Amino acid sequence: MRILADLLGLAILAWGSPALAQLAPVNELGLSMGHLHVAAPDREKEAKAWLALGGQLENNLSGNIPIGFPGVVVLIARDRAVSGGSAGSLIDHVAFRVPNLEAAVAKWKGIETWWKQGSWGLKIEPGVKPGQAFVTTPGGTKCEILEDKTLKAPIVFDHVHYYVDESRMREMEEFYAKMFGAKQVNGEPDTLSMPGAKLMFSKSVNPATTMGRSLDHIGFNMLNAQVLKAFATTLEQKGAKFDRPYESSSMGMIRTLDGFGTIVEITKAQGGYFDTKLLDATFYDVNEAGKRQGEISDRRQ
To answer: Per-10-residue mean pLDDT for the chain, 301 residues long?
Structure first.
């Protein structure tokens, strides 16, 4: 596919050797941070922006373009209109850490200038405190960038930032703790920890749903189909509401409604985006719609 070849060439030629990316080890429930599912009217432009941030093109396992960072894979859906950017929605933004913020911003501004005539590039804005900046992708996903001088990698994923009505904030934190094993971070109010990412919660008034926006939803990862299927039963016993119940498909998934304005997708073996040795056998048995070879799929891919 030409677009993937072009993107791979950009990743190698423009940025040299990218950081080795992988997902974090799972917690006691078998979960770690997995993916961000984003959409844009022009996904080639969107993919180039995520590559410019420091991601790398990963194994092409689905209909999405996978851009990997240490701790998360960004899955860019096929071209489609979005109802708005992430800012102002329940997931207002996500965050990454870099070792040198000034150098990172200078590099991104250079790419912005280079791509200017083609309307490529990243919208870069200063932060409100030292060691902070904000970058918005062409499709509208807002990223907080934080400086961490102890960091050895060029960029790593840090957190997902939820903005929720104050009256429901505690309820939402308890939901993520109960359903997914997120743990309170000592000394950081309204902050939970999952392997590979923090979940931060701030007050807002009537945040918009994420579905249909540039950052449609996030996803957690499980290691294989067996544990994912068992976890679906556990979620049901805990009272979870499903947008899509467990299904046996190439990547396997559960889609749960969190009840606050977004979906949490739980998929299996997403480490395979970084290393195909981490895929399980079911990836090769069925396609994305759960159909075996020769069976007719009733779902659009």
So the answer is: 46 43 95 97 93 95 95 95 95 98 92 58 92 96 98 97 96 97 97 98 96 97 95 96 89 92 95 94 76 58 39
Sign of the CA dihedral running 194, 200, 205, 207: negative
pTM above 0.85, yes or no: yes
Nearest to 78 by CA among 118, 46, 125: 46
| Length of the chain measured in residues | 301
- Taken in order of first residue, the domains within the chain and their CATH numbers are 20-285 (3.10.180.10)
* DSSP symbols for 234-283: HHHHTT-EEEEEEE--SS-EEEEE-SSS-EEEEEE-GGGGT-GGG--THH
User: How many whole angstroms separate alpha carbon 41 and alpha carbon 44?
Assistant: 9
